[in-house]
Amino acid sequence: MTPDTTTEPRRARRSAHGGRRATRPKRRWGRIVLITLVVLVVAAGGVGYWLYSSVDGNIKGVDIDKAIGDDRPQKLPTSGQNILILGSDSRAGANAALDAGHVSGARSDTALVMHIPEGRTKAVAVSIPRDTLVTRPACTKKDGTQVPSAERVMFNSIYSQVGPACVVKTVEQMSGVRMDHYVEIDFAGFKGLVDAIGGVTVTLDQDIHDTSSGLNLPAGTHRLNGTQALQFVRTRHGVGDGSDLGRIGLQQQFMLALLSEIKKQDLLGSPTKTYKIADKLTAALTTDSELASLTKLADFGRSLNGVDPATMETIMLPVQYDKIDPNRVVAAEPQATQLWKAVRSDSEIPESAKKSPAHGG
Length: 361
What we know:
alpha+beta; 11 helices
């Protein structure tokens, strides 16, 4: 197999302590989890369903089963539910105004596996850093073109090179975990969600001045609109050592703040707000064909009624700096193997499997 080195330019940085800093993955797994949960919760409520049934056609579907075929891990009877969630960073259309950078095409900017154990009372989200070097399996593009397997491929390049089904196949083969569903959301959906609920309140312990994201906030309490919320969860400069792996704390803080706002506003009791949220999100939503309608989302959402998003555990796939290219990371062993084994068997994840040598702190 031929190494694939045609990925994004190297953008390594060093921390103030002289250590190697992670590359610049714009990791937004926290808000992607939130958007997905909100979609499912709104669908599950069924309140004012007739108001937003007209947005059903907004949802785009991908037939993952047909694209991958039988070359997939076995679905175990105790494996719960596993959803691969991707955040697209396309700068086309509405997304072009949401970032000062210039990025061609679309990439899977954020990737995580949401595991919902059997019994569905809690959830675990495992994020995969976008700069992780992986082995991409042989895949078939949407147009039928066959793409051979390749080693040392940067994870976030797979989406743009081969398509979402190949990302699903890659995750399944690296983890041994069968994905039950696929959900993809782009930038614009998150901004629209925050604006639709009138903003989200966060409290900062220190000033944030990030010329890259454009966010300038003094310490204290702030009500963020959609654009500011995007800047907040993308901020890395001036926080920790400035690396992308180190921004996890801000994303977790915002995730909890948004969940609190949703609960406080009782959105499911307001058909008007329910419609606004459903309209914004479905326009930015792509799912596997089994979920590609509001009716199917509602059925799946109702099956998750016992899950409390506030208790969801968020874990980054344990990674370490690559020995050949320190601008990239690779899965750290034996931690990664332990983590995926726990997800497969629907068992408690050991603390040792949650520790990543490359953490950006």
